[in-house]
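User: Can you help me understand a structure? I only have the sequence.
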Amino acid sequence: MQRMAAALLLGATLAGCEQAVRDMYVQPRYQTLQASARQADGRAARPLEPGTIPHSSGVAAEVSSGRNGQSMPAGPVPYTAELLQRGRVQFDIYCAPCHGPDGDGDGYITQRGFPHPPSYHIDRLRHASDDWLVEVITNGYGAMYSFADRVAPADRRAIAAYIRALQRSQHASIDDVPEAQRAPLLGRAP
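Assistant: Let's start by predicting it. Here is the structure, written out as tokens:
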């Protein structure tokens, strides 16, 4: 008799759980632009808070979409120490987690099961234009998502310049070193 009472109690409890789960999935909500009697202005949609920037606006959207007559400068930019330093800082923040600090595609995210991105040192990427690198940073490529809302257009150029410096560091030859600095590198007295 006790077992039957326990089974009935368990069945009633589980039936109540099913109703609670269903209620969690089917909750009352407002449809888009629906009227609301609970708000003084009669609208369910609330106005944006002061200072809120809509997703489709701001510096990155205006520049990358070409609105307002603005566009990112095309072509190579002069590489300066300041540009490369800014590029390194931005690269370390946004790119190194996947691409690795050396650009070899072995960042710490890949050690946790994320797919390895290609190394910046393969021929295809060494011969890609700076504009293409900026385009990939802006719009994403493959599994890489867009960084347009995170990285300012000038910083995208700086990252591309730093990627070029990484590529050069792995594929430099002795001919790239000025003549006056070659002797110590080759083990000769100046």
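Now, to help you interpret it: Residues 62-71 have pLDDT under 50 and may be disordered. Residues 9 and 57 are 57 Å apart (CA to CA). Let me know which part you'd like to focus on.
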